[in-house]
Amino acid sequence: MIELDGADATAFAQAQFMNDVAALEPGGWQWNGWLTPKGRVIALFALLRIAPGTLWMLVPDADIGPLSDALRRFVFRSKVAIRPRPGLVATASFAKPVQASGATLAVLDGGTVELDAGTPSRPRALRLSSQSDHGPVDAELEAAWAAADLEHGLPRLPSSQAEQWTPQQLSLERLDAFSVRKGCYPGQEIVARTHFLGKAKRGLVLLESAAALPVGAQVTNGTDALGSVVASAATPSRGLALAVVPLDRQQPAAQVDGIDVREAPLLDGLQR
């Protein structure tokens, strides 16, 4: 978690991040990201507006220390403090949230912040608190959570995939994670040009297999290269991956690093 706090927190985030932060009301949250000037995703995160001058970046994969340092280089004279919040603990459950719903968060007893991280048919709740007695991490359930993210088209980008892909290549329009109309931000020109000229030639596909699929591995249709794996998760029963491939491919993906795969439909409902 990274906190942006101060009178200029919203204006700073609006100028730096790819989604419309100014449209986010206190108590709301959205998918968002930070791009390079060439429009490549540095980090993808949930952005929570806790109060008028306080934003939380829930960053599932990037290292929040270097990310915070990089953001501070653009503060200049803005009245905003950027600091990691390592004391916050995230706990999750495959159950309906107590109070949160859709893009509206809830503050429960004790100050715990709750998010609706699922869909009506596949409920999930995520709670953020400073509690110290949360117990050990359940690796199997953590893997199941990551797999559910991938099934809904939410890329879990490891460091090797940072600064490699545009929002359209990661099909982030499915999550309402970027804006093409809000005004300038790093990479906005690339994002807007791709959107308005209709030049997105690649996007995400969900792959299933009997084994874990390595990130960065080549995806083929059995003979020809199609693209590469950008995110991967594995449960005891199967492997899942998101890969960037041509949208107009003539044949489906068939193998990843010699492992047989099949394409599966991405699930809807995680947009916020």
UniProtKB/TrEMBL annotation:
The keyword Secreted does not apply. Transmembrane segments: none annotated. Coiled coil: none annotated. Keywords: Transit peptide. It comes from the Bacteria. The keyword Transit peptide applies. SUPFAM superfamilies: Folate-binding domain (SSF103025). NCBIfam families: ygfZ_signature (TIGR03317). This is YgfZ/GcvT domain-containing protein.
